[in-house]
Specification:
- By secondary structure, the chain is α/β, with parallel strands linked by helices.
- Helix content is 34%, strand content 16%.
- It has 14 helices and 14 strands.
- A hairpin with an 8-residue loop joins strand 13 (357-358) and strand 14 (367-368).
- The longest helix is centred in the first third of the chain and has 17 residues, at 44-60.
- The protein is elongated, with a radius of gyration of 36 Å.
- Residues 1-36 are annotated as: Disordered.
- One of its GO terms (cellular component) is Golgi apparatus.
- Keywords: Glycosyltransferase, Membrane, Transferase, Transmembrane, Transmembrane helix.
Length: 392
């Protein structure tokens, strides 16, 4: 037994005692190779091709974009930029999508016009209208902006804020051309341009047969479905009365009496004008173009010439052209100035002061600034992320 134990222990000792290989000697003899071989040196021609490919990719970034992805498209399909009907923007003519939607029962078309573009105001108008609507998916916005179809960025910004809304942008050029041609050679108050546009739009966009026109500086707290359902009877226009501005504030009553007795025009009243009559508020209009009088522009221009209007009487001609020719909407649709949050909560239609803007011709370079009177109630109706998307 003891001899066996000694033998096994001696054998184990012999194995442990075996000297390890000498690493220095092995390295010096060159018997061990490196784990990773050095990288091969590429040929100069491949280096040149690789550098050229990188430069090619850099220059691709400077090419104009030809396609885009619709913000509300769940499939994120690429659509050519020249396909204007794909994203609901039209320049001047009628769009196929607008014509399609106009034939659908129950659609409420809301139109607004901006000479000097400020997307914040359009966002406030859309957000207040949709928030108050009973059926927001049936509200269809038509925004007429200076650049129209060329301003795709404005459309995308609005669609990001209102991805599920029905929204189109239109150009103003064709409407402007009609008005400019009609007023050629006549004295015309330039700031009244926006007030004439709602009555010309249906002749250009014939798909808009019955619609609500809303000025961009309006908070719409009433349900537009109720307004569009108002029966206009034989009238083509519905408007709320503004009794803070009487007729004699726009035109001298004696002059008006002389015109009424001497002129024989279809748009001149057959009975004497009521000097203390309330005037229509042009901020919110209900228009049925199928009943719209074709000589409205002629009446407007005639009153402008006869009264020799200047800038101080900029909308007197429109007030006289609409005299007794519009349906007086209920007092609930009267436009109320925004003075306090309590006032806003208790009224349907609120007018707020437009923030001051620096605007180039046709509004192509609008730069919004802080409102001069400090009344920023309208900012509470901006949708979330507006500052980041539209700018403050």
């Amino acid at each position: 037994m003891s001899s066996s134990y000694q033998s096994s222990r001696s054998s184990a000792t012999h194995r442990r005692a075996a000297p390890p290989p000498n690493a220095n000697n092995a390295a010096s003899s060159g018997s061990v190779r490196q784990d990773v071989d050095p990288a091969p040196t590429p040929r100069p021609v491949f280096r040149f091709l690789g550098f050229g490919f990188i430069i090619f990719l850099v220059f691709l970034q400077f090419l104009p974009a030809t396609h885009f992805r619709h913000p509300s498209d769940p499939l994120r399909r690429w659509t050519p930029f020249d396909d204007s009907t794909a994203f609901g923007a039209t320049s001047d003519g009628n769009s196929s999508s607008a014509a399609k939607n106009s034939r659908e029962d129950g659609m409420v078309h809301v139109v607004s016009w901006m000479d000097c573009l400020d997307l914040r105001l359009l966002a406030v108008l859309a957000n207040s209208t949709l928030s108050s609507s009973r059926y927001p998916h049936l509200v269809f916005f038509h925004f007429f902006i200076p650049k129209g179809n060329e301003d795709k960025v404005s459309f995308f910004k609005l669609k990001v804020l209102f991805p599920h809304s029905n929204l189109e942008i239109h150009g103003q050029q064709e409407v402007r051309e009609i008005i400019t041609t009609a007023i050629s050679g006549a004295q015309f108050a330039g700031s009244s341009f926006v007030e004439v546009a709602p009555f010309i739009i249906p002749s250009v966009h014939q798909s808009l047969t019955k619609f609500i026109y809303i000025s961009p500086n309006i908070l719409m707290k009433g349900k537009v479905e109720d307004l569009i359902g108002t029966a206009l009877s034989n009238y083509a226009i519905g408007a709320a009365e503004d009794c803070s501005r009487k007729l004699d504030m726009f035109v001298n009553s004696n002059v008006l009496d002389v015109i009424q007795r001497s002129a024989s025009k279809p748009w001149v009243s057959e009975t004497p004008y009521a000097k203390n009559a309330c005037t229509p508020d042009l901020s919110v209009l209900l228009i049925d173009s199928t009943k719209l009088d074709g000589d409205f522009v002629d009446a407007f221009l005639w009153w402008s010439k006869v009264l020799n209007l200047n800038e101080s009487g900029k909308n007197s001609a429109i007030v006289l052209a609409l005299y007794n020719k519009y349906l007086k909407l209920s007092n609930s649709w009267s436009v109320t100035p925004a003075t306090s949050s309590e006032m806003i909560n208790n009224t349907r239609v609120i007018r707020y002061d437009i923030p001051n803007s620096v605007c180039s011709q046709f509004g192509s370079g609008a730069t919004p600034q802080v409102s001069g009177n400090g009344n920023n109630i309208w900012k509470h109706y901006l949708p979330p992320m507006s500052d980041q998307i539209l700018g403050s």
